[in-house]
Queue: 2 jobs
Job 1
Amino acid sequence: MEIWIFLAAVVCMLGFCWYVSPYRRREVTKAQHVVATTWLLFRRAVCLLGAILCLFAIGIFLLLDTAWKEKVFPIGLFSLLLIMCVYVGMFGQGWVQYSLSDDFMLYKKLKEKYKWRF
């Protein structure tokens, strides 16, 4: 892959994050509201799909005719992945990677800025 394609993708991602950021002091435009809401719905759809696939994988491992010792690790792993998919789908990821309060605070600010009801 060309380095320019990679750099263009990174610039687009950073520009998107800046565009929908709740810390921008400008009034929300119609385009900004559409982009932010589309991103929220896309993120929730992808996470819902991930959660469904995790539930499907857990069901497959529960139906296998093997000892429980062999099922515990994959079921636990897919359960943690399921929890992560639901959490990220609902609240997203804040600026601080390992802080749940940061995630809730950012989601609250986005919800207030874009007047989301969900």
Job 2
Amino acid sequence: MKVLSPSAGRICDIALVHFAERGYDASSLNDIAVLAGMRKPSLYAHFKSKDDLFSAVLELALITERQYVEERFAVTASASVGLNTLYTDDLAQRYESSAALRFLLRTAFFPPAELKGQVSAGFEAYLERMRELFGVSLKAKYPTLNATDLEIFQDAYIGLIDSLHVELIYGNEPTYRRRVAALWRILGDSIALAAGTVAPSLA
């Protein structure tokens, strides 16, 4: 991410929440400027257009959420941590508390037409990193898994994440909880079977 001045960084932080709540089309640079305590022409001194500001906010959101994912997967250094507690265990709470995640998911599902390529590339890279990290964690806990099974379970995990992202946007908490439990049950049993574990477990 390009280095931003303190004023530009503050504008990005404010715009992140604004875009997360309203989306691209319903967001107003004038409103963002007012929230930042400046006039609209002053905002243009930092960002040349709405697209320019939106791109900066997208980069900020991707960096924020990727860092969060990296930190969550780092807990697999503890043998007592189960794979089903990674990322998905507090994803619903994260969605409520993180404007960056709300912005990222809203933007991924409803990208501005003119920025669709940039949004898709950023979000796909974000998911791919999550896929890689899950693979590392899975291999560490189940070293007997062969490469083919590992690839399949990495893809299945991203399918699980995609499903939960949809539920966060369109569903409700009880449905989300049922879905995450059911999907982890299926994925966990499949991993255990492939790894030759006696009792299905993701711990």
